[in-house]
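Onboarding guide, step 5: your first structure request.
Type a short instruction followed by the sequence, for example:

Predict the 3D structure of this protein.
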Amino acid sequence: MDFMQQSTQQINGFNNSHCQLKIVNYEAEENSISHETHGLSKKHLVVRRGKPFKLTLWFHRRLWNPHTEYPVLEVFLGNHSDRIIVQISDEQHDPQGWSAKIYPGDIHSKSVTIHICSPVNSPVAQYYLFLHIETIHRSRSTFEVGTFVLLCNPWLKEDPVYMPLKAQREEYIKSDRGILFTGTPQNINERPWMFGQYEPGVLEACMKLLQVSQWHFKNKEKDYIRRADPVYLSRVICAMVNCDDDLGILMGNWSGDYKDGVSPAEWSSSADILHQWVLSNCKPVRYGQCWVFASVLCTVMRVLGVPSRVVTVFNAAHDADSNLIIEEYFSSSGEKLPGPKDSTWNFHVWVECWMRRPDLGSAFDGWQVVDATPQEKSGGIYCCGPCPVVAIHQRVLRASFDTRFIYAAVDADVVRLIMHNGRVMKRTVDTETVGRLICTKSIGSDLLENLTQDYKSKTKPQAAGYGRYSGWRGGQDRPMSRDVRKSGTPFLSSSVGHQEDGGILVSRQMSSHFMSCSVGHKEDGGILEYSQMSDGEEEMPPGLEVSLSLKKVPTVGESIVMCVTVRNNSSSSRVLMEHINAQLKEYNRNAQESFWKSHKEECIKAGEVLKLEHSILPSEYESVLADDDIMNVAVVIKDVLTKERFLATQEFNVTSPKITVEIEGGDSIQMKKEYKAHVSFTNTCSNSVNGAVLTVEGSGLLQGKQEARMAILKQDEKIEKTVTIMAAGPGTKLLKVTFSHSNNPKAISRTFHKVTVVSE
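The system replies with structure tokens like these:
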């Protein structure tokens, strides 16, 4: 913003006063450095609550007459205003109320510097400031001083978002870039993201977001007052990042059809999304998925002064019926079937915001989960949180907000059922898969920081069949205490039918006795299954143990090698039928039809360990696999004599072929200078591909998209493109490169290359 601004004309009052305001100096540079807001806006003075900022006022002829006149500032927020008597004093400000002071050395013949301090509990908003020159005769002149934006202050101990460590504040407030983790726990993908809070117009977009919320439309004055509370702020912003109830920013789309918008996978910058939302007059930006919702939410919360970070939960449960159980259905040949509304996402991304929770007590202060992805309604709107991470760890499921739903996302149990002719043939309980890894970007580096222990305690209620689910029903919560356990229902079993869409329709009855199965995890990530009796019966030693593991994390162009291990713990030989198949799925959707399967009979002796190796050739999966696809492999082992079945599963992603990006002179460039960037992709697939396209784009580095095309790209052949890049402003920029071909409608490989831009 301009350092000096001509004052507006006198608004009202007497005309014969010799004290007339001429110019306001916002001291923008000094204030922005002092308040840690440098770069947030060129249009507004941006300051933090509870900390003094200063303005210098210049007058036409002289200051007010100290014998007959005195200055009063008035701050307006909506229809509410606070009068601030300007005092000449060298005492410190009280952050509990508005104050304005003039230090003795700051008074001059035609100018004066006033230090203004807001209360630490001030609402986050844009304020209007006026100066009154009042007289002892009760007359006054009023001048419009201007506006300023007030944000939360994590540097101030009294602020409920106070964060004590400098390194944390640098990372969770000031840093404008991050790393998002996607994929599967066995093969984690890193996706750079530009939060972009210093991009022009981003702060203004965040303030506009508050002004068009449904809460502001319903009751402006109440909304202004409640914006002092970061708990309220986070719920409002969470709801406004999605557009399901209001004029929110993003529209979700998980259909795979993005023709009338932008594929969620193509976004890499919150600023681009916020700019598009503002330019479209608050029409929703198409499209977002969980990591996009979370990244935009993180940007807005950092701008408003609330420390925030993006967190990934691998194997996140979506527990729609709140019973803390996720049911998965498999055919007797191992094919994963469409099931009820509950599901397990290979990964889910949300935000943690740092704040105190006076509504719950100091034990629940700290990181709070806030999830902007529209899944289930909370209080009648699509938002989720803030939920204390400590409440999840301690299983305090009644803590506000949405703790039960979020707890299930990281610690629900997965019940897998093998179906045959409409009946349940086998049930297994997996207590370990959900929330397998929870992580975020480390402070000061791009390394992964493991947060799993913050969400999940080392000791967990153990399953004895389904005994842990008996009693306390899914819709009820226990009082808030440290020993809150999971709730649920006794397992309901019996006749099972199929819906027209291929899903499972279960007609449930109470089951007083059944064979259950416990599932553990091997060190290599495989599933280890063995049977046990439930409902108080004497536990039987397991007859068979079945596990499924990968030889290595596969890369496109390589065979996928799997090993099924069967251990016979019984005293007799067995004849087994092995069914194994592979399906593709997106990270949060049901599996598609099988693209590969194998069936064969095997014999196993008493006490023997049988290892059955399988390979899926590149030619068998390349035509159907895209960059973000997940592969589901399941094996069902059937004892031919007893008809007993055993299930083991694996879900993993295949590493995409590498795209190479090289910038002449290195990845650090100077502003306003041209550099050459060389981009290439080598076809590692097992055969040629038609219609190969290599696309390069980069906001702040390139104008539009640049492409290289080849009609046929043979095996081991290279497609390449050289582009000229130039940055107009400093900071971290991203070059995004994608490779696609006509054999597959989706991108086969994608990379984001970081470029550091330094001033001249």
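Each response can be followed by summary notes, for example: Residues 286 and 735 are 21 Å apart (CA to CA).
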